[in-house]
Amino acid sequence: ESAAEEPRVLCIIQDTTNSKTVNERVTLNLPASTPLKRLFEDVASKVGYVNGTFDLMWGNGDNVTDTTPIDQNSDKTILDAGFEPGKKNFLHLTDKDGEQPHIMPEESGTTDDSAQDRFIGPLPREGSVGCTNDYVSQSYSYSSVLSKSETGYVGLVNQAMTCYLNSLLQTLFMTPEFRNALYKWEFEESEEDPVTSIPYQLQRLFVLLQTSKKRAI
Questions:
Q1: What does the record list as coiled-coil region(s) (predicted)?
Q2: Facing residues of 58 across strands?
Q3: In this predicted model, what pLDDT tens digit does every residue of 105-146 receive, in sequence order?
């Protein structure tokens, strides 16, 4: 079968391990043939926790409906485990054996780059342009509410699988030669519609990245 034709399974994970993360949702859109143990690896990489230090349970979006943890060592596919393609599959990330999940060390070099490319924010090591140690520490979690005043940088809201584009835009913004050249460019409204002008919209985006007080735009 072509990979493009394989059913996809949307997993929505709620981190219930503490009050700061309980309202957070992270999503994974996985091939139906994904093994359960790979699901745990993907969730761990997505939220920045050490794999094996948390449990996943079925949920209905608000409350846990099945108190039996999903088997994280199983080679069974998520489809065979009861996940439904084309529907929202709600999961709860919970403490394991009464202990909170361990936050992945920022210097972890065990994760290969190809795995990192699959995931959409907000890991501590993603978006941390410049001096990472300025605000990333062992106590940092993906759900920490950070404002620009604390980080010095403004993020980009993920608009469903746009992590690759957001990374490129942030890279271009952090290149002074490119940013300054773009600022010098002048838009002629008589010649082009501002809505469809890529350099004009990029100018506006860069200005917001530089001046906004929001955490992300």
A1: none
A2: 91
A3: 865 444 444 433 333 333 333 444 433 333 333 344 444 445
End-to-end CA separation in angstroms for the chain: 39
Better-predicted residue by pLDDT, 124 or 40: 40
Longest dimension (CA), the chain: 66
Q: What is the pLDDT of residues 204-215, one digit of tens each?
A: 999 999 888 888
Does the pTM exceed 0.90?
no
Give the burial string for 151-174 (b: 16+ CB within 10 Å, else e).
bebbbbeeeeeebeebeebbeebe
For residues 173-194, give the mean pLDDT. Answer: 88
Domain limits at 193? 162-211
Residue 132 covered by a domain: no
Between 150 and 126, residue with greater pLDDT: 150
Q: Which of 95, 110, 126 is the last residue of a domain?
A: 95
Contact (CB, 8 A) for 93 and 14: yes
List, as one string, the DSSP characters of 98-121: TBPPPBPPTT---S-HHHHTT--S
3-state secondary structure of 104: coil
Let me know the angle formed at the C-alpha of 126 by 122 and 130, rounded to the nearest 5 degrees: 135
Within a domain: 216 = no
- Which CATH number is 48's domain given? 3.10.20.90
- Percent helix, strand and coil across the chain, each to the nearest 5: 30, 20, 55
CA 56/CA 71 separation, integer angstroms? 8
Pairing, β 8-15 against β 25-31: antiparallel
